[in-house]
Specification:
Chitinase A, domain 3, 16 strands, 7-stranded antiparallel beta sheet, 31% strand, 2 domains, alpha+beta, Peptidyl-prolyl cis-trans isomerase, 4 helices, 15% helix
Amino acid sequence: MRNATQTLLTLLALTGVITACKQTDINGTNDLYIANDQAILNYASQKAYKGSKLTSGLYFYKTDSVIGAKKPAVGEEVQFNYKSYNINTGVLVDSSASTTPVYYPYGIQSILSGLEQGLGLMGEGDKAIMLLPSYIGYNDRALTNLPAYSPVRFDVTLVRSRTQDQQISDYISRNSLPTPELSTTGLRFIRTQTNTAGTSPTTGQTVTIRYAGRTLRSRTAFDSTGTGTFDATLGQGKYVAGFEEGLSKLRVGEKATIIFPSTLGYGTTGVVQNNTYIITPYAPLRFDLEVVSVK
């Protein structure tokens, strides 16, 4: 397959670069950070919050708790809504639209570290207030209504957390796709055009194909042949396992939609371009395939 070209991880103002500032990188004697910590304690006291300040610097206060609720595991897709405020002024900084929640693969460390830690303390249906000092927040980034090195408040609702199998099942349902053939590897295979007289490709052959690949939350392809074709050689380990397995099930003249978990795709690494995830770790993928010829 070709190199992916479409940025997939856009989480409003939450998105950070892949190599982010860590607690161990911070000089704890810095007056700005000390002032952040004190401002958070003062704010929590004034609001009579009944939360606690963690060793990371995060102040966490769960305002609504669902007993026995499932907590997110690393690699699951969390769905949440939020509003953020400047603690010093009370002014709204950012929010997710009520009709457009944020979807994020939990544990990949690509959003604010304080926010990610707080999400891990929540269960499905929980609501929480998180107070982040700048060293686990936006640090030296300035946003509208939030100067650099400012503490920030997040009001968060964790809607749900889904495994990759659940994500795939949800995707098939909401897109009204036919019930797929499920292989032992986890590949979902939906043949959309049949040609029983077509030749089946074998290992080592070059297969001329058309394809488009996308993540399950994206409306646009991260990679495709467009109006052209692509020559793929099977059995040489050049492509992700799910892509090869899907191709091997097709004959010349046939088309299919395949959906597979990240264990058959880009795994826990994803695809990075210019320090931004093109495909995030733990991302299930969809490919639409057509076999044009075999030689």
